[in-house]
């Protein structure tokens, strides 16, 4: 690619189109293994299902025809039960509970968020137990949320936030990512910027190992949309993915939203 970046993905009508310049030289074996397991409907396991991204994952996964297991500490927070969703009460830091619940699933989504800006090890603790349980049960596909503030080459603002207000979050997320990279699983790490409660728009871009051009915010629904598209496409296995919302052309917006609506209607 002319700009030197290894991969940029733009979502149009729900499909992930990857630049021809993507360096796939060290991914062929993993990519083939994951693609061989491809099937239209999956059994997916969601950590952090009561949070904003987790709830969007549940809604959109059910719309796409997947079966969902929500592994949560407080099942009452999920509200009324729906078809094709199972709720399992448990602590994501407890490897024994995860090991008992994971068999039979095709992928794990971790949408756990930090409890606040204070010191925490929640991401590292949950990553440690999740990875161990996945390795023990043979579930290989992991899609996990991290933080855009970890991109070290994105200017003074990111550096300042990473070293001050979000220094504890950055430390915890960075430790989590190191565990994921060393896990031997088929992982994808998404690093969204500031999260909003806005609706699904489909107007976002992603890039491997960097922040794409766009706004420093994205809706939780759009993050969930990318993760579910990635489960189907396997375009970013073994990659850290930056995300940003963009102002899409009207035609692109219509195509995306129509595709999203068709999935919702079955």
Task: Report, as a whole number of angstroms, the end-to-end distance.
Answer: 38 Å
> Average pLDDT, to the nearest integer?
82
Provide a count of the helices: 8
> Main sheet, how many strands, which sense, barrel?
10 strands, mixed
Determine Rg (CA atoms, Å).
17 Å
Strand order, largest beta sheet = 2-1-10-12-8-7-6-3-4-5
CATH architecture: 3-Layer(aba) Sandwich
* Contiguous uncertain segments of 5+ residues: 1-37
CATH first level: Alpha Beta
Spatial shape: globular
**Could you tell me the number of beta strands?**
12
> Which structural class is indicated by helix and strand composition?
alpha/beta
CATH topology: Rossmann fold
Order of helices and strands: EEHEHEEHEHEHHEEEEHEH
The CATH superfamily label reads: NAD(P)-binding Rossmann-like Domain
Q: State the helical fraction.
A: 25-40%
Q: How many separate domains make up the residues?
A: 1
Percent of residues in beta strands: 15-25%
Commentary on this structure:
The protein is α/β, with parallel strands linked by helices. It has a single domain (8-265), classed as Rossmann fold. It is 36% helix and 22% strand. It has eight helices and twelve strands. The strands form two sheets. It has a ten-stranded mixed beta sheet with strand order 2-1-10-12-8-7-6-3-4-5, sandwiched between helices. Strand 1 (8-12) and strand 2 (15-18) form a beta hairpin. Helix 2 packs across helix 7 (220-233), helix 3 crosses helix 4 (122-137) and helix 4 (122-137) runs parallel beside helix 6. The chain is globular.
């Amino acid at each position: 690619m002319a700009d030197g970046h290894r991969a940029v993905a733009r979502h149009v009508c729900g499909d992930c189109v990857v630049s021809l310049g993507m360096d796939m030289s060290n991914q062929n074996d993993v990519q083939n293994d994951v693609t061989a397991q491809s099937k239209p409907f999956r059994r997916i396991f969601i950590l952090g299902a009561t949070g904003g991204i987790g709830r969007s994952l549940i809604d959109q996964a059910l719309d796409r025809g997947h079966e969902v297991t929500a592994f949560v500490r407080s099942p009452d927070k999920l509200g009324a039960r729906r078809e094709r969703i199972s709720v399992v009460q448990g602590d994501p830091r407890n490897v024994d509970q995860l090991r008992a619940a994971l068999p039979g699933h095709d992928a794990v989504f971790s949408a756990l968020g930090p409890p606040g800006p204070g010191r925490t090890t929640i991401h590292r603790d949950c990553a440690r137990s999740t990875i161990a349980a996945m390795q023990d049960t043979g579930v290989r596909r992991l899609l996990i949320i991290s933080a855009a503030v970890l991109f070290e080459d994105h200017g003074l603002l990111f550096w300042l936030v990473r070293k001050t207000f979000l220094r504890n979050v950055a430390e915890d997320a960075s430790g989590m990512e190191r565990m994921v990279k060393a896990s031997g699983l088929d992982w994808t790490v998404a690093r969204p910027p500031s999260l909003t409660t806005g609706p699904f728009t489909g107007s976002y871009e992603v890039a491997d190992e960097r922040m794409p051009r766009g706004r420093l915010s994205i809706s939780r629904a759009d993050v969930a949309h990318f993760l579910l598209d990635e489960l189907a496409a396997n375009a970013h296995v073994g990659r850290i993915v930056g995300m940003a919302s963009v102002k899409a052309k009207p035609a692109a917006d219509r195509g995306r939203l129509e595709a999203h609506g068709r999935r919702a209607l079955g």
